[in-house]
Structures are given as structure tokens and as C-alpha cells.
Amino acid sequence: MLNLAHTRSFLAVIDGRGFRAAARALNLSPSTVVDHINQLEAELAAPLLVRRRGGIAPTPQGEAFLPLARALLATAERAREVVAGFPLRIAAASNIGTYLLQSTLASFTATDPCPTELWIGGNPKVAERLDGRQADVGLMEWWDDRPGFLARIWRREPLVVIVDPDHPWARRTEVEASDLIGVRILGGEAGTGTGTLLRHALGALADRIETVNGLGSTEAVKRAVRAGLGISLVLASSVTDEVAAGDLVALPLTGAAIIKDLRLIVPDPLPAGSPAARFAAYALGQDMAAVSNRLV
Amino acid sequence: MLNLAHTRSFLAVIDGRGFRAAARALNLSPSTVVDHINQLEAELAAPLLVRRRGGIAPTPQGEAFLPLARALLATAERAREVVAGFPLRIAAASNIGTYLLQSTLASFTATDPCPTELWIGGNPKVAERLDGRQADVGLMEWWDDRPGFLARIWRREPLVVIVDPDHPWARRTEVEASDLIGVRILGGEAGTGTGTLLRHALGALADRIETVNGLGSTEAVKRAVRAGLGISLVLASSVTDEVAAGDLVALPLTGAAIIKDLRLIVPDPLPAGSPAARFAAYALGQDMAAVSNRLV
DNA sequence: ACGATTGTTCGGAATATCCGCACAAATTGC
DNA sequence: GCAATTTGTGCGGATATTCCGAACAATCGT
Questions:
Q1: Is the CATH number 1.10.3720.10 carried by domain A4-84?
Q2: How far apart are the C-alpha atoms of A71 and B46, rounded to whole Å?
Q3: Of A45, A75, A269, which is closest to B38 when you measure between CB atoms?
């Protein structure tokens, strides 16, 4: 089978009018270029170059091969560009995508200027997009270990209790898990990420909490809390602005700290050097392949 | 650098809708095909195939790569065809080309149907064509060891004395070298292949022979001998027809047999498997590479 | 005639290729 | 249902390829 590296050497020899110049242009040793040409000639079973006193010249076969060789290399280059041109499609769960990912993504694209597409939606939708290969990287609050993917914990974000500034707890510096009993908690209903986490953290007290559902987004929850409709548990990062502005009060949970493990998911045969691999390496601060059990 | 063998495996997997079928089609083991796809994905830094329950499917990148991969393989194939389509250009000295080569060439093209071109001319012209790369193989009576070529003795043909049927020697069965003294010999003048050979074989008697020049071709020599203008020394093979028909009498030389070494010449970096190499191997009954000191 | 340059061969270390085997998961057959 | 088959995959190692530095022959410039 024809070898593109050998073909490239042939073109370099023609263009550089010599083996030495070709070797210099390709960062190879001259003897390697000689090897390449010899193998190319053996492969095509025809002499391609006449080595003569002084310079070199293509044989008729070499002359005929020349445009095809150029086409070959150009096509290979175009293939690389076309494939590399595909944007990195990130799918993130809404609060991750809205509050946490932006800065990471901005600094990533600053160091690695590859086109990216960020899609934000609910956790199940993220999983769905990963499954349907509509996303190259997923960021979500849980992962169900379905096969064909690798999952790593990206960040461990604590949940904080948020109350409106007029709430009785507004002056407190922390909240005990047991304080949550009997209080109306907005969001965090059973089945959601936060809800599951909440019930798990409270243990035996889990069935005595009171949650209100129907509030889709974190933004809606925040508005409801500010309106004094109840308290809530959200990612600390999602309320930094409101806390700074005095619109909301965030209180850490003590006794049973609730940590949300935010996971980064990639399809398992993850080609090394691909945008997805580069982003994962950047986000995790380490190469994903380091912990993968596959050749990537 | 992109690898065409890997690319071919990719196409085979797509076309065969699976790794196993691809491996079968390419006479490879399935694990090799897996390797190829993995390396291709690493090379292009993008996933190309989704391995799913049952079958496989190309990713968007794979879909985009597909036509380029096909173009790549098609171009490589066309390159091979174009280069292979060049005819084998044989240049032969006139008597070799006229009397000896025809049968060899005919049986060669019967076993190896590659397009051939036979050019017949004088010995110096043959060397000239080799030097100017207008011939891929040369067949001639001597070789001056110019660099860049390999020479092998193709055949060792004895020269015979030919006389016309009415000549006093016509009833003899052989001729002594010393008999040639004082006899008018047509052709064989100093400087020609036969002339040099003749003088070398006769040794001390060399300066006592009488040659007539001005007869270019062997055919002209034969006509002159039949006309009783003198005798001559020619390749035995060049007069088999006339001897059989009784138009000429051929007599072997004794005492100092004159053997003409017919040489086959090819350019030195002789690509293995090329038409020239195949012809040389066929004509010599052995691979030229076996005695070459180069990688061919 | 001399050194500088060029193409080449040679031997070796690093690397890639390819396969047989074994395993896991999914599919098929009964 | 459950075993048998099929399919993709990971692993280890025999084999081949790749690539280089060093040394050499031939050529060119001056």
C-alpha cells in the first residue's frame, strides 16, 4: 500500500531539487529520505527519480506520478482540516452550564482556540445527547454508568441554603440539617439531583422534609426565594452574584454537608488529541487517558 | 501522517458494516482492523465510528471523512495504474534485437503481459538511450561500466565463420583460427564488437588479418558473403535460417573459439517488481537483485 | 588539487504492525 | 430461558518497518 509519508518525501525531493534539501524541509535525515524514495519506487515498481551528477530529475513515471502525489497529499490535508473543523459540542446540565462552566470554557478557548458549541438542558437531556452522539462532552450532576462512556468527577460543589434577606435565618452564619425539618424547601423534589442528594444526606429525617416542585430552573427558584416563598438548596456558585448584591443570603449546611459531584462525561474510545480530549484534560487538570484502561 | 492502509480499513468497516467483515475483506485479523481505526481516530483526533450494539455507524466526522477517504484510495490506485502503464522500453543492439531477442521477448510477454517497446540500433546508440533514460533495459555486445547501471552477461554466443556454398571451405566442418590469415573478412573491422573480439582471440596473428568495412548490418554482410565477396564471422543464431536453407555454410572456429558475451544492462537503482526487473529476472533466469549490492 | 557538498550504504535502536488468544457483551437458536 | 454463536476489544510477543548517525564515493567549486 502506498505510503503518504514516502509520497511527501518524493514531493519534497522534487521541490527541493535534492535529497538533502528535502530532508531539511521535512526534519528528517537524508538517509531516511533515500529510504522513502527507494520504498516508493519499489511500491510502484518503477523508477521515479534519476540520480545524476549534481541534481536529480523525475523519470517519465515520476513526472506522471507527480500530480497524483500532490493530489494525494492535498486530499489528506483537507481530510485533516475537515475533520478538525468539527466544533466541540458540550452539553451541560442547566446550572452547571449557566453558573460554573462559562469561566472554564472561556479560559479553555483562550488557550485552545477550537470552535465550541455549548448546549444547556436538563440532566436527562444531557445524557440523551451524549447517547445520541449529539454531544462530545457532557457535564452533569450524576451518571448512570452506561457503557461506552468514561465519567470523571469534575468538581465537588457544596449546596448552600438560600433565604431572602428578611428571613428569620438571614442573620445566622450556618444551618443545621435538622433545621430543615418542617421548612418549605423550594425545588429539591424527589427524583431530581438535588432532591436525591438531600434525602440521602438527611438519612432518617428524609421523609419529614417538605419540598415544593414545579419550579423548573434555578433562576425561578431564586426568584421565588427572594419573594419570600420559602428557602432552597442550590449550588453555592449559582448565587454568588445575588449574595454579593445582598438580594439573597447563602448559609452553609453543617452536620450533613451536601456535596454535589459534578461529572464530566466523554465517549469511551476517546481519540487522543481530539477537542473533547483536550477539553477534558484542561477541565480535569489531567489527561483522561491516564485513568482510562484503553488505548486512546 | 495519515496512513492509507488505515484509511482502507476504515472504508472496509463502513462498507462491510462491521469490523469482522472488514477484516475478512482485507485478509486481516479483526484486532488489526481495530488497531487501524484506533490509530486513524488518534491521527485525525476525532471519533470516526460509533461502536454500538450490533452494528457500527460513522460519526459526523466519519461521515465527512468518508468521501475524502474514498478519494484518497482512488487516487492511490490511479497512481499505481498510471505508473504501471508505462511500457517496458528495451533497447537492443541490432543483431541481438533481430535474431536473438524476439523469441525471449515473445515468451516473456506471454507470461507477463506488460506493454513493451523494442528499439533496435547500434551498440553505441543503445548505451546512449540507456544513459538518456529512453530505455529501461539495454541488450548489447559490450559494456563500458559507466556508473549508475548494472550489467550482467545474458548469453555467451559463439561466432561462426560463414562462407557461401561455393566457397572452397564449404565442405569443411570447422575452421582453424590461423586459416583466417590472408582471407578477406567482411565486417569485423577494428573498433567494432566483433573486430575487437577477433583481434583479441587471434592474439599475435591479429595484425595479419584483412577486414573490409563499410557494411553496416549483419544482413548486408550475409548478402555479401552469399555473393562470394568474402567470408565473415557472425553470431551463430543470426544465420540459422540461411544455413538450414543451404544459402550459407556456417563453420565453428577451433583453436581459438570466439565467444561474444551479450550483456543485459539496467539502471542501478532498479525498483523491485518493475517491468524492467521482471524482464531481467526472466531473461537471466535469476533475480538481478540476487547479485546486486543495493536494495532493489 | 583541495575542501565542501551530495547521494548512498550499513548497522542499530526505537517503533509499528499484525496476529492468536482470551474475554465481555449482544444476538440468535432451540 | 439458556446455551451457542457472533461481534468488538485488550493483551503479549514475534516480526517488520522506520529512522538515524557514521562512514564512504562521487562531484562541484575555486
A1: no
A2: 23
A3: A269
Q: Are A183 and A231 in contact (CB under 8 A)?
A: yes
Contact B72 A69 (CB under 8 A): no
Q: Is the pLDDT of residue A30 over 90?
A: yes
* CB distance under 7 Å to strand D: residues: A 3, 5-6, 27-32, 35-36, 39, 53-54, 269, 293-295; B 18-21, 30-31, 34, 37-38, 51, 55-56, 147
Strand A184-186 vs strand B210-212: parallel, antiparallel, or unpaired? unpaired
Pair A135, A119: CB distance under 8 Å: yes
A293 CA → C23 C1’, Å: 15
Banded pLDDT at B5 (limits 50, 70, 90): very high
> What's the CA–C1' distance between A75 and D8, in Å?
30
The label of the residue with cell 421523609 reads A207
pTM of the model: 0.81
- Residue ranges of the domains in chain B? 4-84, 88-155+261-291, 158-259
Q: A262 Cβ partners below 8 Å, 6+ apart? A: A96, A100, A139, A140, A141, A153, A154, A155, A156, A157
CATH class of B88-155+261-291: alpha beta
Q: Residue A191 is which amino acid?
A: G
Q: How close A93 comes to chain B (CA, Å)?
A: 23
Q: B248 φ, ψ to 5°? A: -140, 155
Beta-bridged to residue A259, according to DSSP, are A158
pLDDT in tens, A62-79: 999 999 999 999 999 999
A158-259 folds as D-Maltodextrin-Binding Protein; domain 2 (3.40.190)
Taking the CA atoms of A216, A221, A224 and A230 in sequence, report the sign of the dihedral they define.
Answer: positive
Instruction: Give all strands (DSSP E) within B62-191, no chain letters.
Output: 88-93, 116-121, 137-140, 149-163, 175-176, 184-186
Chain B residue with CA closest to A68: the answer is B79
Over residues A145-164, the mean pLDDT reads: 84
Length A289 CA → C28 C1' (Å): 36
What's the rounded Cα separation, in Å, for the pair B77 and B84?
Answer: 10
- Fold matches, A88-155+261-291 and A158-259: yes
Give A87's contacts in chain B (Cβ within 8 Å).
none
Which CA distances in Å does B159 have to B194, B206, B222, B233? 9, 16, 14, 6
- List the beta bridge partners of residue B231: B185
